[in-house]
Write a structure and sequence with these properties.
The chain is α/β, with parallel strands linked by helices and 390 residues long. The protein is built from 13 helices and 17 strands.
């Protein structure tokens, strides 16, 4: 079986985790801050806070930006449900902005039009969450310009994108956002098993993110409501969560950071070969915006309608039956029963609907061998119903 994604664990990774297991600290020790420092320095961000999942990171990012009941958050419909759920956790409402037909990221044109209409209705979003699908950055400079015009805050959902660049700067530096979120799930570019991280350049947001990830508790006297009772003293000053990352997870992530650029380079080499060998009239291959250097978490092909005898569903099933565990990233969020009950109109998202009817994520991970990649390529190009003649 060839999965669409897979972690790459080295002996050095294993040794780093074992070292923590033999240490005095399994959690809340020195390795989490070391991992945070490594990521913040790589991305050139002032602050980084590791948590137990990117979902948790999105949640506390919304909380830190003051999202609450009656507020409105917009995101892309082509994303994992966590990008929208994080707003609902805060009691806010969620809406979606259609995707760009080429990048599959949030369309700047659609966003601008939706903002213009929302301003007339007096219902502008408090936060917009652009999603860097497959590791390619959204057009963040244009989205940031719209934020300054309309007054919303920005959370970059860069769950797919660590190691990527936008305008020659590392994604995660928050040049065009208030908070950036990474994911370290096993199929992502680097992994901590499960885990995520928030990055920001704002010291006040940093302090708030830190509180929310750990029960809303503070230990520094400057953050307390009165003078401490003694050196043992701490205060819970708001309702926070137990979203902390362990030192065990952080040790794996810190070790993986040593190979981040290597992983991304390997993904680009694999993508280059796909680009060269999958040139078919009926296939649409991923397009990269010239301002971006993608982390290439995913390689997404599209089956052009009326261009081939094989349908989107048939190709998906053919590849699965061949032992190639392709996937579809993602079902538009508004199509899920929970969101469908809210009452979104599919007609508002024509590009997302078109994408959903054509997209397939084929294997893309740093350790994908050339022979396995060739097997995938041959399986895609082999005509449906083809038989060998003996």
């Amino acid at each position: 079986m060839i999965p669409y994604g897979r972690q790459d664990i080295s002996e050095a990774d294993i040794s780093a985790v074992v070292e923590v297991l033999k240490s005095d600290f399994l959690t809340q020790g020195p390795v989490v801050p070391a991992f945070e420092k490594a990521v913040s320095e790589y991305c050139n961000a002032n602050y980084a806070y590791a948590v137990n999942s990117a979902t948790s990171a999105l949640h506390i990012a919304c909380l830190a930006l003051g999202v609450g009941k009656g507020d409105l958050v917009w995101t892309s419909p082509i994303t994992f449900v966590a990008s929208a759920n994080c707003a609902l956790y805060c009691g806010a409402d969620v809406d979606f902005v259609d995707i760009d037909s080429a990048s599959y990221n949030m369309s700047v044109k659609a966003l601008a039009e939706k903002l213009k209409n929302a301003e007339k209705l007096g219902r502008l979003p408090k936060v917009v969450i652009p999603v860097h699908l497959a590791g390619q950055s959204c057009e963040m400079d244009k989205i940031f310009a719209l934020s300054e015009k309309y007054g919303f805050r920005i959370i970059e959902d860069a769950s797919h994108a660590i190691g990527g660049k936008y305008k020659n700067k590392a994604i995660g530096g928050c040049q065009y956002s208030h908070i950036t979120v990474f994911s370290f799930h096993p199929v992502k570019i680097i992994t901590t098993g499960e885990g995520g991280m928030c990055l920001t350049n704002d010291p006040q947001l940093a302090t708030t993110l830190n509180r929310y990830r750990s029960h809303g508790i503070v230990r520094h006297p400057s953050e307390m409501t009165h003078i401490p009772d003694g050196p043992w003293y701490y205060q819970q000053i708001e309702l926070g969560y137990n979203y902390r990352m362990t030192d065990i997870q952080a040790a794996l992530g810190l070790s993986q950071m040593n190979r981040l650029d290597e992983f991304v380079a390997a993904r680009h080499s694999i993508a280059k070969r796909y680009n060269e060998l999958l040139i078919e009239e009926w296939l649409e291959l991923p397009w990269q915006h010239p301002d971006t250097y993608s982390g290439l978490h995913l390689y997404i092909i599209r089956v052009k309608k009326n261009k081939t005898a094989i349908t989107h569903l048939q190709l998906f099933e053919k590849l699965r039956n061949a032992g190639i565990l392709v996937n579809l990233h993602y079902i538009p969020v508004y199509r899920h029963p929970f969101y469908d009950a809210i009452g979104y109109d599919k007609k508002e998202f024509p590009q997302a609907e078109s994408y959903y009817s054509e997209a397939i994520s084929i294997p893309m991970f740093a350790a994908l061998t050339e022979s396995d990649q060739q097997f995938v390529i041959d399986a895609i190009k082999k005509p449906s119903g083809h038989q060998n003649l003996f």
